């Protein structure tokens, strides 16, 4: 198999050097060029035809978002966003992921070395090279009236996602009604970006979406997104009350927060009064947890291969029998809401 050719785009020569050095440690990756601004990058993309581009969020002459739009419209190429650890950088990164960037990493911040900040970059680049690209403006839309005449049946909904998950989750959650089932989501994402992502989901949906805080009561109409970083989101039942729990914990399947940890907690808290969905992402996090949910009697759904950016996590879950039904992302809202509704119980 030929090596993955990468173009590194960043206005800082130092950062270009750091990213290049990190990528060159992987024998399956070849850094074929670099550029200091979008104008240089445009010519380099034409000349070098890279498999993947790493793109700085904030650059001179043209913003990362403007340049990403041009790439996706004129020469669709997998892009990994390299973001500053600031609120502005986070907001811009979420916008880029919604536009079709495959994944993101944060630049080294105070007390964080380049090795730590970019520890997952090589795997993200290789996953991006295998990802499915959609033309700009061709983002999936939820099926019409997915929320319909929704009447909650008391089920809890748990969703796990990773690479490509920003676009997928926007598609699913945008169809949720104001009285949606209590919903918990673990999306693999750096800590700096989850608050911005929760805000973006909240604006897109009739439901209320927030970054989960420890002890928050699980309520209809509420969606709780796991904070990124070194904490896990779980669901706990005590004294008859369901609550979201956010606690520090070692990575599971290489991730903190972990989808498996979330799904396992749902099994313990509510058993068969749950619905699980596993969406696009690389790796296998969530597969065993979703199987435990299905074995406990919960309804379980997986995103189909054709609509995934990376068909890794859903494939792993499907292959071990954890997925009751596969569906394109445009139909996922209808399926999970149906399984949480008194109307149709998920037979959409």
TrEMBL record:
<dbReference type="InterPro" id="IPR001789">
    <property type="entry name" value="Sig_transdc_resp-reg_receiver"/>
</dbReference>
<dbReference type="GO" id="GO:0006935">
    <property type="term" value="P:chemotaxis"/>
</dbReference>
<dbReference type="InterPro" id="IPR008248">
    <property type="entry name" value="CheB-like"/>
</dbReference>
<feature type="active site">
    <location>
        <position position="188"/>
    </location>
</feature>
<feature type="active site">
    <location>
        <position position="285"/>
    </location>
</feature>
<comment type="function">
    <text>Involved in chemotaxis. Part of a chemotaxis signal transduction system that modulates chemotaxis in response to various stimuli. Catalyzes the demethylation of specific methylglutamate residues introduced into the chemoreceptors (methyl-accepting chemotaxis proteins or MCP) by CheR. Also mediates the irreversible deamidation of specific glutamine residues to glutamic acid.</text>
</comment>
<keyword id="KW-0963">Cytoplasm</keyword>
<dbReference type="InterPro" id="IPR035909">
    <property type="entry name" value="CheB_C"/>
</dbReference>
<keyword id="KW-0378">Hydrolase</keyword>
<feature type="modified residue" description="4-aspartylphosphate">
    <location>
        <position position="56"/>
    </location>
</feature>
<dbReference type="Pfam" id="PF01339">
    <property type="entry name" value="CheB_methylest"/>
</dbReference>
<feature type="domain" description="Response regulatory">
    <location>
        <begin position="5"/>
        <end position="122"/>
    </location>
</feature>
<keyword id="KW-0145">Chemotaxis</keyword>
<feature type="active site">
    <location>
        <position position="162"/>
    </location>
</feature>
<dbReference type="GO" id="GO:0000156">
    <property type="term" value="F:phosphorelay response regulator activity"/>
</dbReference>
<dbReference type="GO" id="GO:0005737">
    <property type="term" value="C:cytoplasm"/>
</dbReference>
<dbReference type="GO" id="GO:0008984">
    <property type="term" value="F:protein-glutamate methylesterase activity"/>
</dbReference>
<dbReference type="InterPro" id="IPR000673">
    <property type="entry name" value="Sig_transdc_resp-reg_Me-estase"/>
</dbReference>
<protein>
    <recommendedName>
        <fullName>Protein-glutamate methylesterase/protein-glutamine glutaminase</fullName>
        <ecNumber>3.1.1.61</ecNumber>
        <ecNumber>3.5.1.44</ecNumber>
    </recommendedName>
</protein>
<feature type="domain" description="CheB-type methylesterase">
    <location>
        <begin position="150"/>
        <end position="343"/>
    </location>
</feature>
<comment type="similarity">
    <text>Belongs to the CheB family.</text>
</comment>
<keyword id="KW-0597">Phosphoprotein</keyword>
<dbReference type="GO" id="GO:0050568">
    <property type="term" value="F:protein-glutamine glutaminase activity"/>
</dbReference>
<dbReference type="InterPro" id="IPR011006">
    <property type="entry name" value="CheY-like_superfamily"/>
</dbReference>
<dbReference type="Pfam" id="PF00072">
    <property type="entry name" value="Response_reg"/>
</dbReference>
